[in-house]
Each structure stands twice: as C-alpha cells, then as structure tokens.
Amino acid sequence: MEYASSPVFDPLHPLRHVGRKAVLGVVLITIVIVYYTERYAKGVELISTLLKVSPWLIVAMLAVNTVYFVLQGGLLRGVYRSVGFNRGLLYLTSMYLGMNLVNTIAPMAGLSGSVYMMYFEKHRGLDRGDTFLINFLYYVTDYLVFLVIVLLGIGYLVWAGQSTQVIAATSSIFAGFAIVVLVTGIVLFTHPSALHQLIHGVNRIISKLFRRKQPFIKEESVNHFADSALLAWSRSRSGRHHLVSSAICALCLHLVSLLMLWLAFQTFHVHVNPQTLISGYTIATLLNIVSPTPGGIGIAEGGMTAVFVALGIPVEQALLVALLYRTIFVWYPLVLGFLALHFLPRLADRERPGVYN
C-alpha cells in the first residue's frame, strides 16, 4: 500500500519537520535550567543531588511509561469501537506514538496529530468524518476523566490545607475549556445544520488566510465530511458502552503518570508527600495541554519546579525531578514515535478495515 505525502506531515521523512521546534525546545529548557540554577540553586548541591541518582529507578520509569503508551492504545481502541470500527491494540498504540510525535514536531501544534491520523486512516477505508469524531471522543474522554481527577485532587488539597491559587486558577481555566469543548461538540453533532455552517465558515476563513480565490476545500467535500461525521455520531449512540473502557484506560493513564512522577522523586532519594505529588502533576498536565509550546516544553518544567519549591522541596531537587520526569514523559516517546512511524504502514496492512460488530 502506498502512502502519499501529507501537507501536514510526511511520514517518510519525519526528520525534516523537527527544525524550529527542536531549537525552541532546547532554548526554553536551557532558560529554565539557567534561571533556577543562577537565581536559586547552588552548583555544589545540584551536583550532589545528581550523583545520588538511582539508575534502576530510571529504568522503572521507562517501563511504566511503556505501560502508559499501551493504555493510550486501549483508550483509542474503545473510542474506535464506539464509532463502529475495530483496530488491534498494537496498531493503535503505534498510532498514538505517531500522533504524539507529529503533535510535537509538525508545523500545526496540537492539531497535526489528529490531521495525520485522519490522513493515515483514509487508506484503511475510514471517512474523514469518522476519524474526526474518533478524535473528538478521544480528547473529550481523556479531558473529562482528568477534570474529575483534578477536582478530586483540589478537594484533597483544600482538606489538607495545601491548595494554591495557581492550581485553582489553572484548573478553573481547564475546566471551562473542557466543558466548552464538550458542549460545543454535542450541540454541533445534534444539530446538523450548525455543523455544516461551522465547517463551511472555517473553510472560508482558511481560504481568505491563504488568499485563495477558490475555497480551500471544495463545497461537496465539506458536505461529505460533515455528513460522514454525523453518520458516525449516529452509530456511536449504540456503542457508547465502549467508552466506559476508554474512560477506565484514561483513569489508569493518569494514575500511571503519578507513579512515574513519584519514581522521579525516588530516583533522587527525595521524600514527597501526596500534596506535592498531586500539585506538581496537576500543573504539569495542565501546562502540557494549554501551553503554546510543543508538548509544553520549557513551560511545564518551569511550572513544576516552581510548585515543588513553593511546597518546600529544595530547588536543586525540584529542578532535577521536573527535568527527569519531563524527559521520560516527553522525549522518550518521541524516540519510539520515529520507530512507530516506520512500522505503522506494515501494521496497517495487517488490519482489517471491516466494521466492528
């Protein structure tokens, strides 16, 4: 099967897209390290903390992160089944790794992975409307589960007297964002004319931005996309029970991530209480979602370090823990993502495009 080049991401030459974002990531990480080490940290204590590292715990973090990828595949599998399609766990885990890589390094931050997934699944017989709904349900399921975790975490922190204004503010912003996405999606899918009007409007705006005399996407293609999305939505009504398994996978994802953060503290022999663990993870995840930088690079590391320091962790330990956690969470998946993109076409060829019963 031939896979033509995509205007958003070329799977045959992924390295050509790294460029600016790799430089941006390195620059921001360097700024965070220099800022904290110059203003707060003592070089001797930083080196002393670094020398206490436990290599086997880093290996354990990599193993736990691998479980995280499989859970992401499980989340996607439940969503696929809810829409009426079946895909293997290995294929969907590889798809997640590929989408994560594309989201991080491709030109359109945040949307590139979804567009690439639409492009890739087109060769498996799925309409773009099907993949559009799959992406919507995937993100909504993950966001809503994380919102529940955030609210429970804030409740615990308030009860323990460790809540901070930063966590409350960022959590409120995310809660508003998640609810708006959910409500907007439900309104659009239950009102076909509204969905058609929105997609046509976006098409006109894109055409004007690129100064095209003709619409960026042909009108009949826009109508087909909207109709296929609505058809997928109608099918998903009878498959909503599959979203329960997706929600369970999403819950396990965040528990596994908390375990990784706890292991990062143990790697440097740093005692951490539940308040600090919950606060750091909440801030890191929120900044990873809303940050303008790819994967929250530079922003999440700085935010995590600031929260840890505010809750009593020495700055040297806080900085190293944040950098280690983010290295395992962000950079390790990128390496696997390049491997996934290499093998994904072969895995796709083994998948059956039939509808799931």
Describe the protein.
This protein has 357 residues and is mainly α. The protein has helices at 19-39, 43-51, 55-83, 89-105, 112-121, 128-160, 165-190, 192-209, 219-236, 242-267, 274-290, 299-310, 315-350. The longest helix has 36 residues, at 315-350. The two termini are 26 Å apart.
Give a count of the beta strands, DSSP E runs of length 2 or more.
Answer: 0
Distance between the termini: 26 Å
Number of helices: 13
- The structural domain count equals 1
Low-confidence parts? 1-9
Give the biggest sheet.
none
How much strand content do the residues show?
Answer: under 5%
Question: What would you call the structural class?
Answer: mainly alpha
Radius of gyration: 21 Å
Apparent shape: globular
Helix amount: over 70%
User: What value does the average pLDDT take?
Assistant: 76
Sequence of secondary-structure elements: HHHHHHHHHHHHH
Record the SSE blueprint.
Blueprint: H1 19-39, H2 43-51, H3 55-83, H4 89-105, H5 112-121, H6 128-160, H7 165-190, H8 192-209, H9 219-236, H10 242-267, H11 274-290, H12 299-310, H13 315-350
Helix pairs in contact: 3-4, 3-6, 3-10, 3-13, 4-5, 4-13, 5-6, 6-7, 6-9, 6-10, 6-11, 7-8, 7-11, 8-9, 10-13, 11-12, 12-13
